[in-house]
## 1
Amino acid sequence: MKSDIAFLKTYLAELQASYATASELTEADFAPRGAKTVPETSTEAERVARLADAHGMDGSLFRYMHSYVFDLDADLRNARLQIETIPRIIAAIEQADDAPHRIPDDAEMLTLRDMATLLNMGESTVRQHDKQGKIPRRLKIGGSIRWDRQEMIDWRAAGSLPREVWERRKGSR
C-alpha cells in the first residue's frame, strides 16, 4: 500500500505540472484538425484507475486519456477532476491501511447474493453501489467479497448513509 501511495503522489505531481502547462496552450499547439487515433490508456493511468476502482471510486475517469483528437476544455476539466480525485484515493488507501483487519470470530458475513436480498436490489446494482461508495466498505476474504451483517444493519438503521459519511460517523463512535 505504501508503494501505491508513493506512486499516486508522483502521478499527481506530474499531472499537476502537465495541467499547469496545458492550461496555457491552445488547440493549435496540438495535432492537426481531423487527425484521429483510437484512444488508449497509459500503464500509469490504468494503475490509478484500478486503485480508484478498488477503493470505491470511478476508475473510468483515468481510462482512455490519450488521443490525437483534442477538446482542450474537456481535457482540462478531466485533468482537474483527476487532480481532485487522486488525494481521495490516497486517503481511502491510508484509511484502509489504518482500519483493523481482524474480523471478529462471531461476525456473520454476507455474500453478494445476501446483500442483494437484504437491500432488495440486484447483485449488479449492489456492485454498482459499492463502486460508487453508496454502501459500507466491503471486505475481501481470500478471493471472496463479504460485508459484515451487523454493520449493514447499523448502516440501514442510520439511514443508509453514503460510505464516506458512514465511515466518519463510525469512526467518531
## 2
Amino acid sequence: MSHYDDQRLESQVELKSGRPEHEPTKALRDTVSMHAMVGTNQVDIASVLDIDPKTLRKHYRSELTLAVAKANATIGGALFNKAKSGDTGAMIFWMKARAGFKETNVVQNENKKVKTFSDMYDNGPAEDNDDEWED
C-alpha cells in the first residue's frame, strides 16, 4: 500500500463524522419508561432525548414494549386495592370492565289502550267522557 492509499484511508475515517453512537444510561432508560407509561408518543420521547425515533426504538425497545403493561398493572393494582377496601365506585368499575357486568334498563309496555284524537270526538265532547281516560 502506498503513502497515498494511507492518506486516503485516513481521510475517509475523518469524513465519517456526525453524532457519536447513542449510549443508553439507566437514567435515560427510566425517562423513556416513564414517558411511555403515561402515553407520550415515540416522536416526542425521542425529542426529549435529542435522538431520532429510529435510535429510540433501537436502544429502548424493551422499555417501549413493557411500559403499557407496567402502567396497566400499576393502575389496575391500585383500583383492585380500592375495590377490596370497600370503594363502591371502584367495585362497580371493576365488575363492568373486568367481569363483563353491565347496567340494563328494562322498559315494560303495559298494553293500555291509548285514545286518539278521533276517539275523543267520536263519542262526544271530552268533558263528557272523562271516566274513559286513563292516566
